[in-house]
Amino acid sequence: MAYVRVEKAVKYFPREDGTDMLVLDAVSFETKEYGITCLLGPSGCGKSTLLNIITGLEHLEQGRAEIVSNHRDAGKDAPRLGYVFQDPRLLNWKRVENNLIFALKGMGIPRQEWDERIHKYLSLVGLLEFRKQFPLYLSGGMRQRVGLARGLVIEPEVLLMDEPYSKLDHLTARKLREYTLEICARLKQTALLVTHDVEEAAYMGDRTVILSPRPARITDILDNPLPPLERDVDDTRFIQFKKKLLQSVMRLVKEEV
Ligand SMILES: Nc1ncnc2c1ncn2[C@@H]1O[C@H](COP(=O)(O)OP(=O)(O)OP(=O)(O)O)[C@@H](O)[C@H]1O
Ligand SMILES: [Mg+2]
User: Fold this and answer.
1) Which of 2, 159, 165, 185 could lock onto 82 through a cystine, CB 3.0 to 4.6 A?
2) Segments making up each domain of the chain, as ranges
3) Residues with Cβ within 6 A of ligand 1?
4) Is the pTM for the entire model greater than 0.85?
5) pLDDT tens string 235-255
């Protein structure tokens, strides 16, 4: 069991002129314990900043952000976090399997487990036959799948994904959403996915946390009425839920203009 808990998070960044810019304004939410929680908000509102705070790359001025887990002594060990980026950020001079080994080594996973894990996670993303290939010889969608396998191979308590499919063409992104949803459901993976795409949130999110334009405030938290494997973008129930999310987002836009 693991989930992310953010409580009254306040974050400022310094501006060029020396004044402070408020980015997160008392943001509080909890992710689901199993499944995907989406952070849905407009560009520049502070979504990536929130992920950086959760990974410990950035600090908070006030409040807290933590991984609640019963797998480890939270006071002693760092949480095990997987990360999938918008750009897969693979090491192009290393074969696919060595990209995964790099993550396994970094996390201190014993060498005798490597082969089994590489086999398992490359199979899950459908790329086992490409384990010896170099990333530059793969398509963009395949590289993104390697990125997903690399995030999962360390068996993270929480998988963090920052707009992982926003640079792919429509059909590839759609296929990869399907893939990721299925894999996360099968693994009972706790995940936090950043997106600005309402349809992506409706499709991927078991829960969606809606953020306002900067400074980010939580404006709504909506749980998906449909289980992950019963979401069909053409189904009326799906369209209804997507509308609900969209209305929530549009309310904010109207307040802005
Ligand atoms: N290290 C930094 N120093 C100063 N300002 C920063 C820093 N990182 C982010 N910002 C600012 O904080 C705000 C939030 O940025 P962030 O990258 O979190 O937005 P985002 O919601 O992820 O946007 P996008 O959807 O475009 O990726 C932006 O105004 C950005 O310019
Ligand atoms: Mg971002």
Assistant:
1) 159
2) 2-80+158-256, 87-155
3) 13, 23, 41, 43-49, 196, 214
4) yes
5) 999 999 999 999 999 887 666
